[in-house]
Design a protein that fits this description.
Layout: H1 18-32, H2 45-48, E1 68-73, H3 77-94, E2 97-102, H4 107-116, E3 123-126, H5 129-137, H6 146-155, H7 158-162, E4 165-166, E5 169-170, E6 172-179, E7 182-186, H8 187-193, H9 201-213, E8 219-220, H10 226-241, H11 243-250, H12 259-272, H13 281-286, H14 290-295, E9 308-310, H15 315-319, E10 330-334, E11 345-353, H16 358-367, H17 370-377, H18 397-408, E12 414-415, H19 417-420, H20 423-426, H21 432-442, H22 447-462
Parallel strand pairs: 1-2, 1-3, 8-9, 11-12
Antiparallel strand pairs: 3-11, 4-5, 6-11, 7-9, 7-10
C-alpha cells in the first residue's frame, strides 16, 4: 500500500500477480458475459458465486423505535428507488424512520451547504475516496463503530477496506461497486452488420467500421457528464500504460504531460476524432447526459442512434427503461485490450457517518452486511464488493458473472482514477479533468493542449 503525496486515502498497488489477476478477470468476462441470457440462471451459480452467505438475516440490529435518520446520495431514478427498498428493510427491522435526501454533484459541496445550515444528513454515500478524505479533514466524518467494523472485516477484502480508511481509521463502507470496463451493444445492429465482439483495440476499430458501413453510428457518448469521459481515458490508460503508471498518474507522481498520457489521448482520438463515429458528433455528445447515451443505443429497433455505449454494469438500470432485454437485445463485452492486458477498472460509493449516533452506526452496519446488499442485488443494475453476497442473489446470469469477476479480482483491482483525485480535479462538473476531456472531445486533435490543461489543473488541486 502507499499514500499519495497529499496523504490521501491509500489505494491498492500492484502486487506481483496484478496483471495476471486482471487477465483472469477479463478472461472470465470475455468467455461468459455475452453467452448469458437475461433470465435467471440454471441454479448452478449458487455454488460458484461471488459470495458464500445466504439470503437470510446475518446481522443483528438494535431496536430504534422513534429514531429518525436521513441518508444523502446523488442517486436518481431506479437506482434511488431500489436503495429506498433497502432502507425500508432497515426500518422494518429496527423501527427507525429513514428519509432519503437527493444530493447534487459534487456531493462534498452539497454536504458543506447542509452542514453550514445546521442540517447535515446522518449518513452520506460518497463516490470518491478523495471525498472521504475531505470529509475527514473537515471533521465531518465520524469513524465506524465496533459493530460496523466487524461487518466490514467479515465481508470485505482488505483492498475494499483500505480505500475507506483514512489515517488508519475506517470511515467508509463501500456499499456499491461498479465494473467500469464494459462496452454494451445493440445485438440486432451487430447481427445485421455482421459485426463481431472485439478483444483488442484494433478489433474494436474494425468492428466500429463494420457497424458504420451498415448505416449505424458506432458509438453513443454521454459527454454532458464529464465522468463518463474520464472512464474512457482510464481504461485506455490502464491497459496501454500498465498498472504501475496508472498508480503514479492517479497520485500525480508523474505529470499529465508524460508521454504515456499523450499516447492514451492519441488512442482515444481514434474514436472521438473519427468523423461520424459518435452519435450527434462532438456537439451532440456534449449535450447528451449518461442515461440518454444508454437509452438511445437500445431504442429504435435495429436503427438506433448508436450501436455501442461504453460504461459500467450500472448501464443495466437505464437499459431497463427501454424495451430491450439484457442478454438478448442488449449484450456486453469487456473493454478491449489496448496494451498487453484488458483493463479492469472499478468504482464505488461508500457510506460515511456524519452525525454519530446509535441509529447511524446501526444503518452503516446494516449496509456493510450481505443482508442489505442482497436486497438491492436482486433488483438489478447493482454490484456489491461484499464477498458474502451470494451470487444467486443477482437476477440474471450477466449480472452474476460480473459479480463473480469483481469478487474474483480480490485486492488486485484498480479504482477509478478520477475518484482517487482531489474533487476539484477529478470530480467537479465544469472543472479539472471533466472539463479538459469535454474540451478534448470537442477537439481531439489538441493532444498537447489537453495535456497542458490537465497538468495545470492537477498541480493546483494536488498542491504540487
Amino acid at each position: 500500500m502507499r499514500r499519495s503525496p497529499d496523504n490521501r486515502t491509500p489505494v491498492p498497488r500492484t502486487r506481483g500477480a496484478a496483471r495476471a489477476a486482471a487477465a483472469v478477470v477479463a478472461g472470465v468476462l470475455a468467455v461468459s458475459l455475452t453467452a448469458c441470457g437475461g433470465g435467471d440462471d440454471d441454479g448452478d451459480e449458487d455454488a460458484k458465486g461471488g459470495g458464500t452467505g445466504d439470503t437470510g438475516t446475518t446481522v443483528t440490529l438494535p431496536k430504534l423505535d422513534g429514531a429518525n435518520l436521513s441518508v444523502a446520495a446523488v442517486w436518481t431514478g431506479a437506482e434511488q428507488a431500489n436503495f429506498k427498498k433497502v432502507l425500508a428493510e432497515f426500518e422494518k427491522r429496527t423501527g427507525a424512520k429513514v428519509t432519503f435526501v437527493p444530493a447534487q454533484d459534487p456531493i462534498i459541496n452539497f454536504l458543506g451547504s447542509k452542514i453550514a445550515g445546521g442540517a447535515p444528513p446522518d449518513v452520506a454515500l460518497l463516490p470518491q475516496p478523495g471525498a472521504i478524505k475531505q470529509a475527514v479533514d473537515k471533521k465531518w466524518a465520524k469513524p465506524l463503530g465496533a459493530e460496523a467494523q466487524a461487518e466490514l472485516a467479515k465481508n470485505y477484502s482488505q483492498g475494499w477496506q483500505d480505500i475507506g480508511t483514512v489515517d488508519g481509521k475506517p470511515y467508509g463502507v463501500y456499499y456499491k461497486a461498479a465494473n467500469k470496463s464494459l462496452i454494451w451493444y445493440n445485438a440486432q445492429v451487430f447481427e445485421n452488420a455482421g459485426a463481431s465482439e472485439p478483444k483488442t483495440w484494433d478489433e474494436l476499430l474494425t468492428t466500429a467500421q463494420t457497424v458504420y458501413d451498415s448505416g449505424v453510428t458506432p458509438f453513443s457518448v454521454g459527454g454532458a457528464d464529464g465522468w463518463t469521459l474520464t472512464d474512457w481515458f482510464e481504461n485506455i490508460y490502464l491497459s496501454q500504460a500498465g498498472p504501475e503508471k496508472y498508480d503514479q498518474l492517479a497520485a500525480h507522481e508523474i505529470k499529465w504531460t508524460d508521454p504515456s498520457v499523450k499516447e492514451a489521448l492519441t488512442t482515444l482520438a481514434e474514436i472521438w476524432g473519427k468523423k461520424d463515429y459518435v452519435a450527434g458528433g462532438a456537439r451532440g455528445a456534449l449535450q447528451t447526459e449518461f442515461p440518454e447515451s444508454v437509452t438511445q443505443t437500445f431504442t429504435g429497433g435495429d436503427q438506433p442512434k448508436a450501436a455501442m455505449v461504453y460504461e459500467g454494469d450500472f448501464v443495466q438500470v437505464n437499459i431497463g427503461e427501454t424495451k430491450a432485454k439484457v442478454g438478448t437485445d442488449a449484450k456486453v463485452f469487456p473493454f478491449p485490450a489496448v496494451g498487453d492486458t484488458a483493463p479492469v477498472v472499478s468504482g464505488g460509493d461508500a457510506a460515511v457517518i456524519l452525525k454519530d449516533s446509535k441509529a447511524a452506526q446501526a444503518l452503516v452496519t446494516f449496509l456493510a452486511s450481505p443482508d442489505a446488499a442482497g436486497i438491492q442485488a436482486k433488483l438489478g443494475g447493482y454490484l456489491s464488493p461484499n464477498k458474502n453476497v451470494p451470487n444467486s442473489a443477482y437476477p440474471n446470469a450477466v449480472q452474476q458473472k460480473m459479480a463473480e469477476a469483481l469478487i474474483g479480482a480480490g485486492d488486485d483491482f484498480r479504482f477509478d482514477m478520477s475518484d482517487q483525485a482531489p474533487q476539484a480535479f477529478g470530480g467537479t462538473p465544469g472543472k479539472g479533468e471533466w472539463k479538459a476531456l469535454q474540451d478534448f472531445l470537442k477537439d481531439p486533435k489538441d493532444v498537447a493542449g489537453t495535456q497542458q490543461r490537465l497538468e495545470a489543473d492537477a498541480a493546483a488541486a494536488y498542491g504540487n
